[in-house]
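Methods — Computational structure assignment.
A single polypeptide chain was analysed. Its primary sequence is given first, followed by the predicted tertiary structure written as structure tokens.
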Amino acid sequence: MSTTPAAVPAPTRPYRGGQVPVAGTYQLDTAHTTVEFVARHLMITKVRGRFAQFGGSVQVAEVPEESSVEVTIDAASVDTNQDQRDAHLRSADFLDVEHHPTLRFTSTGVADAGDGHWQVAGDLTVRGTTRPVVLEAAFEGGSVTPWGSRAVAFSAWTEIDREDWGLTYNQALEAGGVLVGKKVRIELNVEAVLEEAGAEEAGTERGAA
């Protein structure tokens, strides 16, 4: 007999006047997670891109501040909806995916910022260079899926200077300024599923609805 959502424990618990996920290991549901970035073109237009292939996990501790996050990204999966630009981003001018195929984020600390917001400090590795960043994160809530698994959602963002990671390519404009902005905003919208004995991975055998 299949498990019904009504029989599944709640995916969240109270903490300091708010809600946090129950403790455990959560795997990213890649069918319902986005890893995106935004950069300026010609100093005026915001161009949005994403990485299509990635994986990772969130370890939620009994004390949330002791939690951790690990995410790996396939650099070659960069997608800005323009083939020529994507090929350039994969080249040695930018990500150099031939020599550095993986981007990685590994958390080093979690701090409660209040009102359901958190700061997740960590090391971001791009093009073989590792530097510290801080993600401004929010817990968006939890739910029991129609298949009886427990899912939670987070959003997070940070802004980096791409040149700090060796992505220094640019072209000067006649009217002043540069072709590609140095600042890059990284935006994450994450759904993750709690690992439980006998449970199936979300977005695989159960489908990606």
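Note: Residues 79 and 86 are 6 Å apart (CA to CA).
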